Amino acid sequence: MKLLRSAGQRIGNKPAIALVILWSLFPLYWAAKTSLTTLASAEGRPPKYIPAPFTISNYKALFGIQSSGADIAYQFGRSLVNSTVESGGAMILTILIAVTSAYAFARLHMRFKGVIFASVIGTLLLPAYATLIPVYRMMSGWGLVNTYFGVILAYTAGFVPLAMWILYTYFQSIPAEIEEAAAVDGASALRTLIRIVIPLSAPGIASAAIITFMLGWTQFLFPLVLTSDLSSQPVTVIVAALNGQRVVPFTLLMGAAALAAAPPGIFALIMNRRIVQGLTAGGVK
Question: How many Å is the Cα radius of gyration of the chain?
């Protein structure tokens, strides 16, 4: 009876899983399909589910192979560089802060530690737009609007609590006896962290770093407000700006959207096992 119930549950779950996958991936497929056909075909009725006629002219324009799309290619290429710099910079700064702060909360004894930790983690409950105006006023006062560093600081402020929470649970899973043995040998807390704790926590740190980078790549609201020119605008803002230009066909816009979504998607697929390993290892002592 149990075997029949278990088999029924497995069979019953498959359609639900297939529906969720279809719901999630179909928009991406449609964007890719639209980008690989002509504007006339994309606007035709009834809609075609396979690109016909097939063409890569939209991608040629985005990569600057066609002279007619040189300006768009420059904007798109520069925005990809901006996204890489800002997401990568935020990832590095976030991990540096999160590692040291999470280790302090996990191992050091201090007054009101629980209250401070709960206050930091509680900021994850705040909606992003609640802090948007204060952050903009701060960055404007410091002269960091339209700069890489301003966007990186804004990202870091939002990402540190999540990364710290991930690493806090991971550090707690490491036996304290290992660090106590290092202390007996004369190692300082900083040396113990660098030489022992960080190598043992590599999966958790990698998981936090990957998640942070992906979050940075997909940001739209903060860079939209903090950047107003191409010198620092990421790809998410540029794709939205292209959408407002009537001279840009939406087949080309779909190509830009597909290319913008490709890096985090491919990154997540490649690093999926490491992300899961880092998130789950901290829960097993």
Answer: 23
65-94 per-position pLDDT tens digit: 766 666 788 889 999 999 999 999 999 999
Here the tokens at position 165 are: 């929470």
d(CA 6, CA 265): 33
Kindly write down the DSSP assignment for every residue of 181-207, as one continuous string.
HHHHTT--HHHHIIIIIHHHTHHHHHH
Complete domains list, the chain, with CATH = 1-55 (no CATH), 68-281 (1.10.3720.10)
193: Cβ contacts below 8 Å, ≥ 6 apart:
99, 100, 103
Residue 41: is it exposed, middle or buried by C-beta count within 10 angstroms (0-12/13-18/19+)? middle
DSSP state of 124: G
| CA 173 and chain centroid, separation | 25
What is the 8-class DSSP label of residue 48? P
Better-predicted residue by pLDDT, 263 or 8: 263
- In contact, 184 and 139? CB cutoff 8 Å: no
Which pLDDT belongs to residue 64? Answer: 80
Q: Which long-range contacts (CB under 8 A, 24 or more apart) does 185-194 make?
A: 189/107, 189/108, 193/99, 193/100, 193/103
The pLDDT assigned to 135 comes to 92
Tell me which amino acid residue 33 is.
K
- d(CA 174, CA 191) in angstroms, rounded, equals 16
Rounded-to-integer distance, Cα 91 and Cα 177, Å: 31
Question: In whole angstroms, what is the distance from residue 57 CA to residue 42 CA?
Answer: 14
